[in-house]
Protein 1
Amino acid sequence: MPELPEVETIRRDLDREVAGKKIRAVDVTGMRSIRRHKNKKEFISQLEMRKIGGVSRKGKYLLMRLDAGDVLVVHLGMSGQLLRAKGPKEPLPKHTHVVLTFTQGGQLRYVDPRTFGELFVTAADDLESQVSELAHLGFDPLDDVMSWTRFGDLLYERKAKLKPLLMDQRFVAGIGNIYSDEILFAAGLRHDRSSDSLSSQEVRRLYRAMVETLQEAVKHRGSSLADEQYRDLFGEVGDFQSQHKVYDREGQPCRRCRSSIVRVRVGGRSSFMCPQCQV
DNA sequence: CGATCTACCTGATGGC
DNA sequence: TGCCATCAGGTAGATC
């Protein structure tokens, strides 16, 4: 579900809503969402009576600093949600796996029907060295400013097809199936163009499209598709789906040239593109 | 090395 | 009404 714009929306709200709060109690249902830990007790003891500091993000990972020098890491997978609740009286949604209750009142709940997401606590010093997914993440397209010539060098080195490359978290962190399609449309490039075949003008267009599409999506608080599974911290849907140019628009007219948007299969997943505007 | 697959899960949807 | 297949924002690991 959530890609960089959705995770960034949640990060900003978390930073305002839970930073500075102290965790009084932790409730965990089942081991699947905390599978990196040996048992519930080991996970819970690292959180209880700890104060949450600032909340940051690396790609699609949320990092919540704890006062003991540890970090609570959250990855939402396909269907994870972090939801704020006023208190324990609010009914628990189905598939709630972890609940943090704060001393000041209020709760933070982790809900995840498909259970591909996870939470774990690790020492801040070990993040880069011990957690290999985080250690190998590529640059963050919004946080790490880069010249487009440098971006062009990185593209040239990889010699991969553009869509799988944009979705490769080791290359650039935070882009998934929706935003890779939207970025490639904005750049006017096909998903199967080789990354070493781009003219300098195309490199510039791709870089601009990546940054601007993601920034615009953050402004709209992310994309919620038909199932509205993406919800922000307050349970509200995002708004960027109404701005989608290609994603989930099969058969509808291209907003630029009126051609019919087509759906193609790339690496087992659906991709959407305008056959006219993308070359 | 890259490309391609499969597995991990639940739930919604559509065809018959 | 139900049954079955297909699909869904992600990632890791196996296999070629």
Protein 2
Amino acid sequence: MEAIVHPRQRRKEARPAELMAAALELFVEKGFAGTRLDDVAARAGVSKGTLYLYFDSKEALFKAVIQEGIVPILEQGAGLIDGFKGSAAELLRALIGEWWQRIGNTPLAGVPKLMISEAGNFPELAVYYHDTVIVRGRDLIRRTLQRGIAAGEFRVVDVETAIDVIFAPVLMLVIWRYSLGACCGVSHDPRLYLQTHLDLAVNGLSAAKERI
Amino acid sequence: MEAIVHPRQRRKEARPAELMAAALELFVEKGFAGTRLDDVAARAGVSKGTLYLYFDSKEALFKAVIQEGIVPILEQGAGLIDGFKGSAAELLRALIGEWWQRIGNTPLAGVPKLMISEAGNFPELAVYYHDTVIVRGRDLIRRTLQRGIAAGEFRVVDVETAIDVIFAPVLMLVIWRYSLGACCGVSHDPRLYLQTHLDLAVNGLSAAKERI
Amino acid sequence: MEAIVHPRQRRKEARPAELMAAALELFVEKGFAGTRLDDVAARAGVSKGTLYLYFDSKEALFKAVIQEGIVPILEQGAGLIDGFKGSAAELLRALIGEWWQRIGNTPLAGVPKLMISEAGNFPELAVYYHDTVIVRGRDLIRRTLQRGIAAGEFRVVDVETAIDVIFAPVLMLVIWRYSLGACCGVSHDPRLYLQTHLDLAVNGLSAAKERI
Amino acid sequence: MEAIVHPRQRRKEARPAELMAAALELFVEKGFAGTRLDDVAARAGVSKGTLYLYFDSKEALFKAVIQEGIVPILEQGAGLIDGFKGSAAELLRALIGEWWQRIGNTPLAGVPKLMISEAGNFPELAVYYHDTVIVRGRDLIRRTLQRGIAAGEFRVVDVETAIDVIFAPVLMLVIWRYSLGACCGVSHDPRLYLQTHLDLAVNGLSAAKERI
DNA sequence: CATGAATGAGTGTTCATTCAT
DNA sequence: AATGAATGAACACTCATTCAT
């Protein structure tokens, strides 16, 4: 029932998150090797030494950034599917809408670009990310596609391949934003972009045409 | 009439390309900051000092890698579109098939991942890449979509957005290969992947259904 | 009321001077290009990295060495002349005696040799040194000569030229000490050397003879 | 009696001298460590490799520059003194005039500054230079002073000290020219400078006044 | 807890030297 | 003899990491 938390206390507990937030921004912007801990510390408003009170090394900080960036992703609704009433197309729209709310529209959106850039340098972390995030995310899409195909709503496609084809534009949205989109080119309105993608995808998957 | 070229001479002319090929591999794998010039030199089979006979600095090498990696891309056929006899759907398939032949299936396929990773560190280069490669590539897709829409073959969609939605899975194919695909996860058969994508996209774009 | 200063603190403030003292010795001995920062650091009893906490680059260190070496020189008494009671000859002896006390007999005596050696590599610094040190030093001699000539004590000579002729042996004393004098040849007793020079110079300047 | 020499031949034999002339300029300007052999070669109009056909190493080139710079100095007239008819003062003027003709007014004038700058880095060479050039040069002055003193023309002074006092302005003339004089400050007219110096010195040495 | 001065291993870059042509 | 491509040791500079305060 201790509702009041002392500012100091709050600060102390918030520190790791603040540091990781600062680190995420810089890792995304400059890559792992290109990011200096001085800059991370400066952005978080602490001294360089303070970083080492919370993280054993630069690498540990990096892993924490990725892994903490994953937790909220994992919390997301696998539950969404089970209880879902509606067509597979509607479910697909709901899933991606959910993704947008919980990831695409938050600082976590930088994680995919970061993981792509650094997978070569952190293979174990990449495996962890794959097994923890990608496998589960793909599973959500898989079940959605399978439901649609089983119901005759979707055409019969190679599901494993289609999963990636369908999620690719979603990923590119955030990859672009944190790479070339930051310095040049039009950045799309995300809602229009996702809308267009879903329209095309749903239409593309639709079995309707073939009934003609 | 000087048909004979000395080995030294031959070597000297081939050197920059050899060095850039080695550098591309390592930059893609480890990023700019994570790549050591010792390793680049070793992979090219020369000493570190030799790099400096051909490139003023690590940054100059990086820029050369990107810019030389672009030349072959630019040489590709915008001409493909003009003379093309066939439906817009067939043209789309032809374009992406061409891309696969000339880029996706060559070492140049590493360039997009590299540019995405380093755009933040080399903004001017990113602008150059955008203006030189991306703008032209998007133009090819744009003309294809416009032709299909004008012919009533494709549905009316927001073309600027659709361009990116449609090219995203193509890019993700090579991005994946040079990132997480290298250490984990199933790597798709590229032909099946592109096939699936094109089927979905063409079907998604198709106006046929709406004629019912 | 903070009378206590922490050792770290004390050290931090003393560091630049320690580093510059070590650097002066080595720059004088080996020249700018021939001096390794490792050696400077070692002589100052710190690590190489520490140098960069206080100086941005080797060049910045060099400039600081010269410029800080100038400050004590500038503090010296132009005031000596104004209040001086006595003959111009006595004033000349006093000035050079002062120079010996404040420069010739301190580590600053290495600066002239250093500046001579490196003027070609640091032209702007040479200009700064000239304008700040040499011009002022020459002015002291000039006023002394002019006073002596005006009083009929000194012969009429080309003052601008005589300034340098008279100061040359003084400079050579320290130049010699930090160059060939260090490895070969007799090093004069400085007092006898300056005495002899002043006797000759004063006698040479004296108008007495011509009164005959 | 082969008076005609082929240009090629002439070139070949002149090469070392050309290289040393180029090297002298650069060594004087930038110091030993600061001089790049590329630049020496470029200034001499040959390739870098060619240097190694004539000199074993950079150090060998440096030593040759100094030692060859000495030969003409040694050729100068010790003989001048023996046969000299005239006062010691006239002899002093003649000696320094000779020095001006043979050294001060030639590229060899850069040698003293170079030797001063690099004595610390080449102690053996400094010893050689000292024993070969300085000792002999001082001997010429010594004999002149002794002759003057013996004849009652010069005052009794500490000869060993006076030697250096008297030669210092002569050296400073060329040291200045190749150091700060190159980038700032008035460069004196050498004749006026030497004239002024000799007038002062001769007057300073003169015993006349004391006879009064 | 927090700091920031200090460290030293690591890397980009230079340049004297070599050698195949 | 002359070249200049290639080398690799050496050095300036950076930055992750430590630790006394």
